[in-house]
Each structure stands twice: as C-alpha cells, then as structure tokens.
Amino acid sequence: MNKVFSNADEAIHDISNGVTIMLGGFGLCGIPENCIAALVKKNVQGLTCISNNAGVDDFGLGLLLKKRQIKKMIASYVGENAEFERQLLSGELEVELVPQGTLATRCMIAGFGIPFVPLLAGVGTEVAEGKEMVERQGRQYLIEEAFHADFAIVKAWKGDTMGNLIFKDTARNFNAVMATAGKVTIAEVEELVQPGALDPNFIHTPGIYIHRIFQGKNYEKRIEQHTVRKRNA
Amino acid sequence: MNKVFSNADEAIHDISNGVTIMLGGFGLCGIPENCIAALVKKNVQGLTCISNNAGVDDFGLGLLLKKRQIKKMIASYVGENAEFERQLLSGELEVELVPQGTLATRCMIAGFGIPFVPLLAGVGTEVAEGKEMVERQGRQYLIEEAFHADFAIVKAWKGDTMGNLIFKDTARNFNAVMATAGKVTIAEVEELVQPGALDPNFIHTPGIYIHRIFQGKNYEKRIEQHTVRKRNA
Amino acid sequence: MALSKEQIAQRIARELQDGFYVNLGIGIPTLVANYIPEGISVVLQSENGLLGMGPFPFEGEEDPDMINAGKQTVTKLPGSAIFDSATSFGMIRAGKVDLTVLGAMEVADNGDIANWKIPGKMVKGMGGAMDLVAAAKNIIVAMQHTNPKGHSKLLPQCSLPLTGVQCVRKIVTDLGVFSITGQGFHCDERAPGVSVQEIKEKTAGRLSIADDVPEMVF
Amino acid sequence: MALSKEQIAQRIARELQDGFYVNLGIGIPTLVANYIPEGISVVLQSENGLLGMGPFPFEGEEDPDMINAGKQTVTKLPGSAIFDSATSFGMIRAGKVDLTVLGAMEVADNGDIANWKIPGKMVKGMGGAMDLVAAAKNIIVAMQHTNPKGHSKLLPQCSLPLTGVQCVRKIVTDLGVFSITGQGFHCDERAPGVSVQEIKEKTAGRLSIADDVPEMVF
User: Which chains, if any, share at least 3 CB pairs under 8 A with chain A?
Assistant: First the structure.
C-alpha cells in the first residue's frame, strides 16, 4: 500500500478535462496551493469545481478562473473576484450558489454514504426552486442531495504515509469534510510523517479516506483581511 | 455561565420518571458509571434508554434493569444479560432493536439539526417494517428519524469547565455522538480541567453541546473480554 | 439623535445573557463584541469552525490559519474549540447557537429578511446567511433604518430576493428597537431624541408604536 | 478432509489484497488476521471506532478503553486512527471498507444472509451486522457448511430472519469456496479430500460444480 506521491504534479497526473473537483479551504485559508498550481500548469479544461469560495483574482481558484479552466463553479460565496464577475456576466462561467452549511453538509453526507438530507436553509428563497420539500414538526425542509467529486483535493497541516491527517486551527474548515467525499482524495500536507508520529486519538481525517498524499512546498498562506490590534505600551 | 456540578447526584437532580435518556458507551467501554450509579440511587422509574448495549447483569445499564427502572430499551445489541432476557420474555421490558450504524447516525443527525436520513441498513429485513423506503441510483434506503433525548449522559476522559471534551481511544464510540443529541447533555469526566488546558485544535466535542459537567470518581472500567498475548521470552 | 453604528452595537449587546453562544455577522454585528456587559460571559461562534473567538491578534502574531468567517485574522480564547464546516453549521442548525446578529438590506414586517443579492448587480453569494437565519433560535438584525436613498428598510414585504422567511425576531436600527410581533413591527424603544413621528414616517411596514415609547439610555 | 476453522480463515486470507481496509467479524473471521500473506499490508477496521487494530495486548498492558467490536482488549498499530461510532459506520456505508468477513447461520443462493436472530430463542440484536452487509462492497461469509444437526446452511432461501438481502459475494465453508453468481452457488474450490458428491449432498440451494473443481492447497 503506497499512497505517497512526490509532488503535486504526480498526485494530480490523471485529473483530466471535464472532471468534478472538490477543493478544501475557506477563503484563502487552508487551500491546496500546490495542487492548484499544478492544475494551472497542467492546463486541464472544463472543470466543475466545488469549493466554498472562488479565490481572489490572482490567488487560489482565481488562478484557474483566470486561465478559464473552470466551466462550472459550485460555491457559497464568490465575492472579491473581478474576473469571476466578468466570466459570470459574459456567460462563460456557470455558477451554482449553495448556502454554506448546505454545501458543507452535502459533502459530508457523501462521506457517510447518505444520498440526501433534509435541510432548513433556503426554504422560501430562490434556493428552494425545483427542490422537493418535506415537513417535520411543523418546519419545512429542502431535500438536498449529496455532492460527490471525481477528485477531492485537501490541504492539511500534518499527514502520515497511511493518509491520516490533522489540520491546523480554522484551516480545517471544508478540508475535513471534502476529504471524505472524493472518489479519489488527494491530500497535500505541510509535513509528511511516518506512521506512529501522529497520536491516533487526535486524527481529524482517518487515512481510509485518503488515496494520495504528498508533502507540499512553498506555502504562501495569503491573508485576506489582515486585522491586528496594537500592543498596549 | 457555570456548567460545573460537584457530583453525579447533583448533575442528574432533575431527571424524573418517564424521561428518555441516551447513554454513551460501547459494551462496558466508556459508560457513564457515576451517573448510572446515581440513577440507581435516585430510583427514577419508567425510563426509555437509548444505548448501544444494555450492560451486563451486575454492571452498566444492567444495574438499572435489575431495579426495573427501564421501561423501554433502544439498542443494537443486548446479549450477555440474563435479567434483560427475563424481563423481555415476561413482557416487563419493551425493546427496540436498531442496527448499530443506524443508531449512531440517528443520534448524530439530531446534533446536526437534521430530522431524518435515508440509510441502507435493514432494507429487506424486519427492521424495514413500517418504514418508508426511497430509491437512489438503484439502491433502496430506509427513512430513519433522528433520535432526540431529554437527557444525554456521556463519559469523557478530560473535559474543561466550558464543557469541551476529549475521549480516550475507543471509549469515544457513542459518547461523542450522543453528546450532541441531548436537550440536556451531562458529561462526566475522569479529569476536569480549566479552560486553556485542552488544545482547542484537538477537542472531540465542543463545549456548546454540553450543559453540565462534573469530575467522576472511582471508575471501575470493567473489561468484558479480557484478551492478552504472552510476551515472548 | 439617531444612533451611531457603535451605539447600535452597544444596544444589541444588552440582549446578551450569561452563557449565550453568539454568532456575529460582518459589519455592525462584529462591534457587539466590544460591548459585552460586565459580569456576563458569552462565547462567540464563527461559522468557519471556531467557538471561543477572541480579539484580533497583536501585530506580528497574526496567523493565516486562524481566521473568522469574515476572513479576518483573529485569536482563540482559552476554552475555545475548532471544528469543521459541517459540524459548525450542524450546531447552528440544531439550535445550539443562542443568538445570531446580522445585517440586512431589507426586513419585512412578518420577519422575512433579504441580505444577500441585488438582481442585476453582482451576486456574491449567500455564504452562511441562509443557514444562520433558517436555524438560529433568536435573530437580531442590526442595520440602518433607511437606505442611502432615504427609503425605509422596514417594509410590508421585501423587494429583494429573500435570505429567509419569518425568522427575524428583533431589529435594532439607528432609530430604535423593534420586535416582530405577528402584527408587524412593534417599537420597543426609540433612539435618544428621535421622535415617534420620525419613526412612523421612516417605517414602511406595519408599525405599532406608543406615543410614550421609552427612550434608550446610554 | 473438511477444513478446520483455522484453514477456513487461512483460505479467506488469500482474498486479501495489498492496501485493503478490512472488517473482520467475531469468530472464524477474527482468525483471518493471523494469515495475512507476506508482502501484503491491510488495515483492520473495528466498527466501534478504530482503524489499524493490532493484536491483543501483552499481559499487564490491557486497557479497558481500548477494545474491538467483540469487546476484546486490543492494541492499536502505528498509523491507526480512532473515531466515533457514527463516523465508523459512515465510512462503512460510504464503501471505504474493501472487505467484510463475517459469520452466518444461513446463506441463500441469491446472496441473502441470516445471522442475527432465532425466533423464539433469545434475541441479542443485530449489532453492526445489518449495517456491514448492507454497505460493504465485498462480503465473504465464513461458516460451517452444515449446522450441528447436519442440515445445509447454503439454502434456496433463508428460513431465519434476514440480516441483509443479495449481499454475500463469496462463502468459505469447511467444504469449499463458493461464489454467488446470480444462478446460485458456484463452487470454485473444494476442501482437500472432500468429494464433489459430498458438496452436492450438503448444499440445499442451487449449486453449480464442475466434476474437476480444483482442490485447495495449503
């Protein structure tokens, strides 16, 4: 059993035109920087991307958008990206907006082998259009189907060669959820360690979900909203 | 905000006759020993208990069964308990058997605000009787409703005064799931610590789910199947 | 005089109760954290996966892996917990968050809220707003009473695409505090020096307001 | 000669492939772990919340917080992971476990299995068996070919309450290896010295078996 790849290019070698990819991260926090760069380099086309956000103009998924590699974007929030706006208005880009909790849950249930769930978000809004509704205890729910992906690409803090992952702070976000939902899940990690180096009691994503893993490099970890406070004298 | 109670008697003070209680643990592993003892002492009657197992004759939920405090038992496996068998056959005890994964998932979705899920287990068996079926991609699923409880009682390894919990090894089992599903969730812990003592990145159950917490004592931690191997000379 | 944004936040902070778990949206709601009353302990939830959010980090201590739902660098307080996005919205949906404070473009007198989309203009997406308003037990809207054109944002019905239906419980604007009663907006308090007449004129939806409605004190 | 329990386990172990995640039930299936072929690495899943289950602990090192689904004290190997019961069955249901080996009271020639209940006798409950058989991609049953009364356990249809329908792919009994083909049981191999005639006599369900069916070699 060897899940270890030497770099992003090798880990994504069989990602081809037209596939569906999930990408972890919230904003620019915890995004799989190495794999995104490799996808840009490979120049695969016609991708359907499922990701909470769409990056910014020159970073994250924005890099794939700029090269028009994305055919369809499924996300909850895509602000702060002028190229995105241009492609959307020109009809080059198809967009499906999904409430953030619904997005997370639709990925999660794929990893639980659950085909759909009833969720509250979006009842009475345009999100509900065309969706089946059910009632329980006087509340209305929308039937939401699981999101599956040909490839799920996640970024973790540390991972071992068996694929067990731990995330750092709020970089966990969608990474831990999407890791379970890929037909093939690729994890890039800041530090790749040997089995036994991670405490089994504190694994965020068990290795059974991870098909490929590699140690990434040159993480930029760009901050979107740099907010600090002054130190008292 | 004070969630800290001094002992099990105080933590369960308002558990009254006829309520529904979830109890964590798998077999005798990770069961809330202190609260079970307090429930026996308080002698509340007519309980509906949701727990994967029903203990053994003289330990765990078996103690409540022996005193006939349980009216209905919802579990996946209830073997190894002669008193259970006697009460079941005599009609004193009502029993609902639920597949183990279905049981865990029905508790989990309560904590996710999801009223029901379609699950594979039990299709074509007597578990399916009276349940709605749905089909997706050619597979049949049973519609399974969330399990809610008036009180969920769990046992953790360490907890802080905010209610954050960590479990030890396979004692996590149903504890982490049921902790999220109680209208009131009571956690007994082997070690109660101050906020800051547990690493926020490795919390198994966030404190928001926990209403009451206390440091338990005198844990027996009985082993059901004592299996060992000889050390090579 | 109409309330400042800081005062709106300050007034909302009075709604906090000891032990509350609170989700604060971007903008005015974020400011509420600065006015938590003495002797009260609340825990801030950020829907990207954090309970126990603390203040911004000191200069030089910011960590790109430690942000809030507004993508701002933040800190975590002792006793905080990190979790994934599905768990985060799970706890919201299950009603574990006691109070959600968020902004709005429009609120209808039946509690409908619109705050995510202006047709014809750029659509940024709803983010977590639809999840929050659909699930939170207690939703307070923090907003200006009128839009930049001077039109009321408290309406008989929303003109913009909805974020959620019949979910808002209370609104704090620069002019006052309003409950949603089932018979429309009910003015609970007016801003210092703001007249009953002005509130009536600037509220397009159904409004009940007493002539002697109490004035807020700061 | 019919296979011993150890030999049944040994034969099943030949079905293992490198990288497999495997769930082994109580009884004969547990023994499979003792015969993992050289050069092959598999990870054992225990449905109470453990990936990477190791052997029993050395005397004096047993830990009541570290058990398997059979409630036996076990160890965890380097690279193992602990999780809760819902996650455990989630990964089973999502098809992440490559192979499940479990015992049975009866198997029907369409792949139905009964292994949890004997009406009129004590009902212990199905535990995780229904979840496992409903979701696993690949299910191998390990059992005796006949019950203590000498009656076939490979039947045209199960007489006992079902655990799952049309889910068993393969059966290894003391008499041989059988696939479920859609046309009933197909005998792939016979135990050393066991005759085709004996297998035919002791199999009540539809059976296809070649006169020159290969004999297992140990």
Answer: B, C, D
Q: Which residue in D6, D15, D47, D201 is the catalytic one? A: D47
The reply to whether D90 touches chain B by the CB within 8 Å rule is: yes
Q: Which domain holds residue D105?
A: 5-39+97-208
CATH number at residue C33: 3.40.1080.10
Cβ–Cβ below 8 Å for A105 and B117: no
Domain limits of chain B?
A: 8-215
Please name the amino acid found at residue D94: A
Q: What angle do CA A199, A200, A205 make, to 5 degrees?
A: 110
End-to-end CA distance of chain C: give it in Å, rounded: 12
CA D38/CA A189 separation, integer angstroms: 31
CA atoms within 13 A on the CB side of D84: 25
D68 belongs to a structural domain: no
Please state the pTM of the whole predicted model: 0.97
The token pair at C88 is 């985060």
The whole-angstrom distance between residue C33's C-alpha and the CA centroid of its chain comes to: 12
First-to-last CA distance in chain B?
56
Candidates B213, B231, B158; CA nearest to B34 is B213
Question: Does the ipTM exceed 0.85?
Answer: yes
Residues of B whose CB is below 8 A from C92: 113
- How many other C-beta atoms are found inside a 10 Å radius of the C-beta of residue D54? 16
**Structure tokens that stand for A124 in this block:** 């009475």
- CATH class (in words) of the domain with range A8-215: alpha beta
Q: φ, ψ for residue B223 (rounded to 5)?
A: -100, 130
Among B108, B102, B114, smallest CA distance to B77 is for B102
* Inter-chain residue contact B115 with A137, CB threshold 8 Å: yes
For the question of residue D47 being annotated catalytic, the response is yes
B interface mutation test: which of C22, C41, C80 has the most B CBs within 10 A?
C80
List, in sequence order, every beta strand (DSSP E) within B161-211. 165-166, 182-193
Distance (Å, rounded) from C-alpha C15 to C-alpha C216?
13
CB A76 within 8 A of CB A97: yes
> How does pLDDT run along chain C (218 residues), one tens digit per residue?
899 999 999 999 999 999 999 999 988 999 999 999 999 999 999 999 999 999 999 999 999 999 999 999 999 999 999 999 999 999 999 999 999 999 999 999 999 999 999 887 767 899 999 999 999 889 999 999 999 999 999 999 999 999 999 999 999 999 999 999 989 999 999 999 999 999 999 999 999 999 999 999 98
Contact C57, A231 (CB under 8 A): no
Q: C22 Cβ partners below 8 Å, 6+ apart?
A: C16, C32, C42, C43, C44, C45, C97, C98, C99, C100, C101
DSSP 8-state code for residue D30: H
Instruction: Provide, for chain B, the percentages of residues in helix, strand and coil under a 3-state DSSP scheme, each rounded to the nearest 5.
Output: 25, 30, 45
Structural domain includes residue D75: no
**Helices H / strands E in chain B, number of each:** 6, 11
Q: Tell me whether residue D81 is in a domain.
A: no
Using CA coordinates, name the residue in chain B closest to A173. B201
Mutate to test the interface with C, among B114, B117, B161, B162 (most CBs of C within 10 A): B162
Query: How many independent structural domains does chain D possess?
Result: 1
Report residue A233's pLDDT band, with 50, 70 and 90 as the boundaries.
Answer: low
Chain A residues with CB inside 8 Å of C70's CB?
A: 225
| Closest Cα in chain C, distance from residue A222 (Å) | 7
Helix (H, G, I), strand (E, B) or coil at A208: helix
End-to-end CA distance of chain D: 12
Alpha carbon of D36: minimum distance to chain B alpha carbons (Å) = 18
